[in-house]
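STRUCTURE:
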């Protein structure tokens, strides 16, 4: 009896047979090609010109305007467009995709020039950059070589638009090449999935491809908008937020294979696209709002230029893009992108300028073009078009008697491995050595300041004979990240935040029991550096120390001036403080400026101090430390015995009156305490790089943890004089 017996069945119509499931047979060789394409094969000079135009915008905006142009978005888009044309044709004609061969070919073309630039930049950096930047530089070089520089920058929370060009990494621009390399691996796999479905299930090529890549487009763009809004610094380098740019390139490739706009329309489209590209970086806050929906501007502008194609009109933009100068520039565009940034950064660092002038910029551009041409002429072309296989050539050079032949793919693998071995090996060894040296340097600095040390008194020497002591100051060299103070534990158990969204911002260090007095340090990186002074206080008083920190988000920054993430963080943090009721809250009450003596307080400061003190919470407000328009730590390292050139008068860094004093005086009787450390940072009216034989700063605006620990006694005394009691009662 069948499984359907007992179930009434409708009789089949007379003259017909009951339908039976039809198996779908795979496509055969005679089924191809699947579609008719209007897009012809061959070199497209307007795309080469567009690539040249995009790299020119990138270089000009970087060198002369200190801005991001949006040209990189066009690079990503063009890469996807050309890749997709190739794979769509192969699938359409039933040809094997040969993914492994494709990957070998791509990276064999990209790696040699990139490796030469990475090696040269690394060597030059040791002569130009201060020792304190060597460790990060080596990390950047390694991540650039192995195509994960974008993630390295993302997790380092790098600001691509730092005001001081000399403070940027010479490898920072490799973020886009890393994303590109990752996509060159992912995208062929997606096309392989399309090809499998089309071949196995006789699916429609265009319908399948549009579905796959439109899904990627929608998902990635949605994610990009959300993450850019919540964490733009991370989103800028996140591969996932850039996938939609590649997806548009693929969808456009499919469109051009089936449709072409009228000639007159294409003339207009081309010029609209060019104007859009030129104005993007000038109008949009690319470096602070990309790659969310605003990145559609350069991508769609580039799409219009490609859709315009060859117009056969004397008014078409393709006449400009096909011109000899842009074609020549397009030939070296990859190398030009690689070399212009390290030249700019290393030169800016060497001469100590944050922005080059017109003449300096022109020289940098010309030198970059010349070096790019040399790289293409003497590195890329000889290796890309070499006649002799790599392995037999290598065997011959090594004087092996028997020179054997290998398969092409094995030869290419050996070539790539040789590159990674010759370049990556020394980088990894140097990085390991620097890490060891940095660890030793950090350990030594910590040992020197644990107790009162005659050679390294730091802030403890202010007013004494050792204040100006300069004799092998610390910390020297090492990784500057090690000079950021931190707490050792996560916030769990009794110290877990009531709002789970705050958990990622929270850290803890217990020096007493769970019910011991709790001091909570809140705010941005300047609040973080205050931990170096409050950790010794907590250890000595057997109290607990908790931190809620978000870089670039001063507490309490108002919603008007804050980013969405910052505004949400501060709002939730205030509620958490009122629920937790710690004995003390420590915040940075003012914000100093690098280029003036103006100090600011947030409009929300008064209301926040009132709410917290009325709840019985003591509030310690710290006056901000000076900020500089240059890296004062590196200046001190390079200045030798005479550090005076790095010093600045306190009158240039501080306002005549502390702008937060009035607020804290207003609520003093309720537990508000103002701690002004102006004279600790700028004794005798001078803000110096070194005080008491210790470097005060680790960059242009952050205090080193080594110096911060020598400030602990002064901070405690002044807070106590203002009425602070660690036990939670106000001493009036």
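SEQUENCE:
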């Amino acid at each position: 009896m069948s499984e359907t017996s007992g179930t009434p069945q409708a009789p089949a119509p007379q003259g017909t047979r009951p339908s039976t499931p039809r198996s779908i047979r795979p496509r055969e060789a005679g089924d191809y090609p699947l579609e008719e394409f209007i897009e012809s094969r061959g070199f497209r000079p307007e795309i080469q010109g567009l690539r040249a135009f995009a790299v020119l915008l990138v270089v000009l905006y970087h060198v002369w305007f200190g801005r991001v142009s949006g040209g990189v978005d066009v690079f990503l888009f063009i890469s996807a467009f050309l890749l997709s044309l190739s794979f769509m044709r192969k699938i359409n004609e039933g040809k094997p995709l040969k993914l492994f061969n494709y990957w070998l070919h791509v990276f064999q073309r990209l790696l040699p020039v990139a490796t030469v630039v990475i090696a040269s930049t690394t060597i030059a950096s040791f002569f130009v950059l201060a020792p304190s930047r060597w460790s990060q530089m080596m990390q950047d070089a390694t991540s650039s070589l192995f195509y994960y520089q974008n993630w390295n920058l993302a997790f380092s929370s790098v600001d691509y638009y730092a005001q001081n060009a000399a403070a940027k990494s010479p490898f920072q621009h490799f973020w886009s090449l890393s994303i590109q390399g990752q996509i060159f691996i992912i995208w062929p796999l997606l096309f392989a999935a399309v090809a499998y479905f089309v071949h196995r299930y006789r699916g429609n090529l265009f319908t399948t491809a549009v579905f796959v890549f439109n899904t990627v487009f929608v998902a990635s763009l949605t994610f990009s908008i959300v993450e850019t809004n919540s964490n733009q610094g991370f989103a800028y380098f996140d591969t996932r937020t850039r996938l939609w740019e590649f997806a548009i390139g693929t969808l456009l490739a499919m469109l051009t294979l089936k449709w072409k706009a009228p000639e007159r329309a294409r003339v207009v489209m081309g010029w609209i696209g060019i104007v859009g590209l030129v104005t993007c970086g000038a109008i949009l806050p690319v470096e602070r709002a990309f790659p969310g929906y605003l990145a559609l501007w350069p991508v769609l502008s580039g799409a219009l230029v490609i859709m315009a194609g060859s117009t056969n009109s004397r008014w078409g933009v393709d006449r400009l893009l096909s011109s000899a100068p842009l074609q020549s520039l397009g030939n070296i565009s990859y190398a030009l992108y690689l070399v212009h940034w390290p030249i700019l950064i290393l030169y800016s660092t060497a001469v100590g300028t944050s922005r080059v002038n017109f003449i300096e910029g022109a020289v940098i551009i010309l030198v970059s073009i010349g070096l790019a041409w040399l790289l293409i002429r003497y590195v890329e072309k000889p290796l890309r078009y070499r006649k002799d296989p790599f392995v037999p050539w290598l065997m011959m050079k090594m004087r092996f008697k028997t020179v054997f032949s290998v398969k092409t793919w094995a030869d290419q693998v050996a070539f790539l491995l040789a590159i990674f071995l010759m370049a990556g090996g020394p980088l990894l060894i140097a990085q390991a050595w620097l890490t060891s040296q940095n660890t030793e340097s950090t350990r030594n600095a910590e040992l020197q300041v644990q107790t009162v040390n005659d050679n390294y008194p730091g802030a403890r020497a202010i007013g004494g004979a050792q204040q100006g002591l300069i004799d092998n100051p610390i910390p020297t060299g090492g990784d500057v990240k090690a000079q950021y103070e931190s707490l050792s534990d996560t916030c769990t158990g009794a110290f877990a935040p009531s709002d789970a969204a705050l958990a990622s911002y929270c850290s803890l260090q217990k020096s007493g029991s769970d019910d011991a007095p709790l001091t909570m340090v809140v705010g941005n990186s300047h609040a973080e550096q205050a931990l170096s002074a409050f950790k010794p206080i907590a250890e000595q008083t057997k109290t607990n120390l908790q931190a809620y920190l978000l870089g670039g988000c001063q507490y309490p920054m108002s919603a008007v001036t804050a980013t969405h993430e910052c505004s949400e963080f501060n709002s939730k943090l205030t509620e958490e403080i009122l629920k937790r009721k710690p004995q003390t809250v420590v915040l940075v009450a003012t914000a100093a400026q690098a280029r003036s003596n103006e100090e600011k307080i947030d409009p929300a400061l008064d209301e926040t101090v009132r709410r917290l003190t009325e709840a019985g919470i003591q509030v310690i407000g710290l006056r901000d430390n000076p900020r500089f328009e240059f890296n004062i730590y590196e200046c001190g390292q390079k200045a030798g015995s005479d550090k005076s050139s790095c010093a600045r008068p306190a009158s240039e860094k501080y306002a005549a009156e502390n702008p937060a004093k009035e607020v804290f005086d207003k609520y003093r009787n309720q537990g508000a305490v103002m701690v002004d450390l102006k004279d600790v940072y700028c004794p005798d009216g001078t803000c110096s790089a070194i005080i008491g034989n210790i470097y005060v700063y680790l960059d242009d605006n952050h205090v080193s943890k080594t110096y911060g620990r020598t400030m602990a006694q002064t901070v405690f005394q002044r807070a106590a004089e203002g009425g602070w009691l660690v036990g939670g009662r106000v001493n009036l």
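REMARK: Confidence is low (pLDDT under 50) at residues 1-21, 159-165.
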